[in-house]
Structure formats: structure tokens, C-alpha cells
Amino acid sequence: MSNISSLYNPIRYTGLSSGMDIDNIVKNLMQVERLPLQKLTRQKISLIWQREDYRTMNTALTSFRKAAEGLRFGSSFETKQVVSSNPNAVDVTGSSGASEGFNTIKVLNLATSASLTGKALAADTKTDAVVNTGGDITIKGPKGTSTTISITSGSSSIDSIIKDINAQTTVTGVKANYDTNTKRLFLTTDVTGVKSEITVTDNSNAFKSIFNMDSLTSNGINAKFEFNDAVGVNALESETNNFTLNGLTINLKAPTTEPVSVTVSKSNTVVFDKIKEFVNQYNTIVDQFQSVTSTKKDRSYQPLLDEEKSQMTDKQIEQWEAKARQGSLYNDSTLKGALDEFRVAFREPLEGSTYKFLSEIGIKVMSDPRHNGKLEIDEEKLKKALTTNPDAVKDLFTKPSSTVGDTAENKKQRLSELGFAERLYESINNQINKINKRIGMGSVESIDDSILGKDLKRINERVSDLQRRLTDVENRHYKKFTMMEQALQKLNNQGSWLSSQLSSL
Questions:
Q1: Using only C-alpha atoms, what is the Rg of the chain?
Q2: Coil vs helix vs strand at 231
Q3: Of 297, 390, 420, 465, which has the highest C-beta tally within 10 A?
Q4: Secondary structure (3-state) at 144
């Protein structure tokens, strides 16, 4: 059966006269022609994979930078441990500014908010039933703004009155709630302390009558507590039960009959954990960078094209691409240079400080070369240094430098002056910026001014050119076979005419 197809409107004769499978013949001819395009497509896929792998390395660098940042500042080494003898009544945490020592807190009373509660209404009260009394009420709350609510006899209901009050909560700070179990109205405020107030002006007594209210005014009270020697008439007050005092964040939970002791001491545990995380993140970088830069590419596994994937299962594709992706960063100079820079930063002594090397506080390079220069911690030595000479440990990580300038001499001097967390933080930022210049900040397929972005642009342009050329080549093949078919058809027509003429003799 003949098959006529079109491309840019040319008519193709595909074997009607010759009996040949023209489409298949052209397809086979084009396979060789498509090899350069397939090669470029694989290069593009490899480039995208390389970009993704660089970003994975940048993610690891970001985690390392975060660990370094946690040790750059002196406040990181001033963490305090705060212990309350009765955390159920007085819960306390401390900032770096909390004074070390012993404190006492006695809670005389907690801060409360203003509230009004009505008496129980009749058991058969229906909240959607209309009321038989009316009048205007004015509500003033802690936000200082008064609002008027109208109650209309024969029209308003308990539900509508509560809805009207709550519609003004953002203005007054007063919230209404009717509890159907106890049949009571509750008016509350969203703040505590003496500035918390509720005042309901009800000249018609409609509100008092409907909700069985005895009182229409209420004020909150401040928390009152004794702190150290501030006792008796000198006791302190707070509008809230949560406040900061003398570097301590205090949460009062319940009144106490006896003072609660609060002990503040310097905590080395947090600093120790931060240093340990810093070392762990560096070792992770060493493992990842060493792995990707030393893994060679297996040339027998190339990126798959769509037509190749169509012949494979998802599992086969996954396994193949895992092999094909390996080696995208083999012997990469950027990553190897980053490791070299980090090692120099760890190796150079710190000038003008008690400790000059990390090894003096128990952090040293592993002796086995198979570990590729990873660090290990002598935990006992580090804990001892944090206990006996914490300020020197702090300087070892946080010491700043006043040297600036891009000359080699200035850079070397600055490195020797910077604490180890500071110098590593700068170095990590430098490496992240180098990678970003190489891969850009957009998606893995974005065209930008980065090195890989420009490479990707060039490949896309070549792919477009090749696709246009392949279309022209394919059209030329079809044109030749179409001319052949037309010639054969003409011969067939002539043969048929001759046969008909001869048969008539």
C-alpha cells in the first residue's frame, strides 16, 4: 500500500510505483546523518548533569559554612546553662548576657487578663431566639477604643450579640464566648496586666438582663514576684508572665510559697557540639570532593537518548544513568583547589594568640593518608581546653583581622591573623562564589553568563543548526526518490498504453 507523507508541503511518493519501502530507506540513510546530533545531545545531557553535581557540592559547602558561622562570633562561646529548682513554677533560659551565679525567684501571683462572667441562664435558653429587651451598650477594652453595639428587642439574639461583639475584637481587644454547657457568657481580653480592662456601659440594663451579669467592669493584674533581694514592698512586677530580666528569659507558671533557685553557669556543652559539627562538616566535604574528583568516567556508559529509553524499563534507565553520571567532576580543578585552600587554612598558625594551632585543643589531621586529610578530635583534650582556657579557645576560632587588600602578601597576612572559623568562613564563601560563576544561579538548563551557561548556549545553537540541516538532507532524499517514483510511474503508464495498442491489433 502506498504511503504519502508531507513535510513543509512537498508531495512524497513512497513506493507506489517501485514497490520499495521508501520511508524505511530514508530512515536508514538518516541514521548516519543524525550521529553528530546525537553526540551533541549526549554532550548537553552531560553538561546538565555536571551542573547538578556542582550544585550538590555547593549544598555541602553551604552546610560547612553554616557550621563555621556558628563559631565566628564571641557570643557563640558565651552560652549559659540555666537550672531552675522548680521548672513547673518558674521556667528560665539564659542568653549569653546572663550573669553567672545564683538567683532566687518567689512568685507572689501571676499576671491575669480582665474577664467578665455572667451567671447561668435558664436551662432551656436558645441562643438563636430573639430577646425581648433592647438598648445600646458601649464596650471598651485594653486597646483603648470604645465601640457601640445595638441590641434590638424582637430582633437581636444571643448569637447575634456575641457576633457583633467579636466583630470589634480587633478594635477593643475584647472577645465574647457563650458556653452552651454552663449557659454562661464569658468576656475576655487578649492581654494580661493592669492595662487589661473591660468596661461595658449598659444604661438600659439590657445587656445585664440578657446575660445575667452582676458586674460590667474588670481589670487584669500584673505578675508580682520577689527576685533576689527585691522582696516585700520592693517586689517586682510584670504585665506578662513571660519577660526578660538580667539576661534571663523567665516564664512564670504558678505562685510559689518558697523561693525558687535559679543557677546560671557557663556551658561548654553547646560550644563543644558546635566545634564537633564544624569538624564533621569539613570531613563530609573531604569525602564528597575526594570521591567525585577521583571517580573516572566509564566511557561505555553514555547518556541515554529518548529513543534508547523507550526500549528500556524504568529500573534499567535508573541503573544505566547512575553509571553514566559518574565521573562528571573527575579531576575537577575547582573542587581540588577548594580542598587545597581549606587545608592551607587549617595548617597556617594563628598569630598573636595563646593557641596557634587547632591541634593544641585536640583537633588534628588523621595520620592515615587513606583518610585524605580529614580531621579527628581528642574529645578529652578539647573539653579540658574549654574548661581551663575558654577565652583562648574563643580567640582561636573568632580572632578578627585588620589587614585588607588583594595582594598575595596581604592575603597571607590576613590569613595568619584570622581565627580558624573566620578564615574558613571566608574561604568557603570564596569557593561557593567560584562554583556559582561556573554554573550560574538559575535552573540546570538555564542560559546565563556562567561558564556552563555559555557552553549550553553554544550546544543549543549547534543543535538547532544541525536539526535544520537534517531536515534539508531528509527532504533531498525524499525529493530524489519522488523523482524516481514519478519516472517509474511515467514508464508504467507508457507501458500500459503500448500494451493496450498491441492488444487492439
A1: 41
A2: coil
A3: 420
A4: coil
Q: Residue 93 pairs with which residues in a beta bridge? A: 249
The reply to whether 494 falls in a domain is: no
CA 123, 124, 129, 135 torsion-angle sign: negative
Residue 332 has which C-alpha cell?
Answer: 575537577
User: Beta strands of 25-79 (E only): which ranges?
Assistant: none
Exposure on the CB side of residue 401, measured as CA atoms within 13 A: 22
Regarding pTM above 0.85, the answer is no
How many domains does the chain divide into? 3
Average pLDDT, 10 consecutive residues per value, the chain (505 residues): 41 52 70 80 90 94 96 89 96 87 96 96 93 94 93 95 95 95 94 95 94 94 97 96 94 97 90 96 97 94 91 94 93 96 95 95 94 96 95 95 89 93 96 92 74 86 82 77 72 71 68
CA atoms within 13 Å, Cβ hemisphere of 409: 0
Query: What CA–CA distance (Å, rounded) separates 74 from 88?
Result: 32
| 239 and 179 belong to one structural domain | no
Count, in order, helices (H) and strands (E) of the chain. 14, 17
74-84: buried (b, 16+ CB within 10 Å) or exposed (e) per residue?
Answer: eebbbbbbbeb
178 forms beta bridges with 185
Residue 16, in any domain of the structure: no
**Are residues 303 and 281 located together in one domain of the fold?**
yes
SS3 of 148, please? strand
Do 156 and 142 share a structural domain? yes
Residue 239 lies in a domain: yes
What backbone phi and psi angles, to 5 degrees, belong to 403? -80, 130
For residue 45, the enclosing domain spans 36-74+270-439
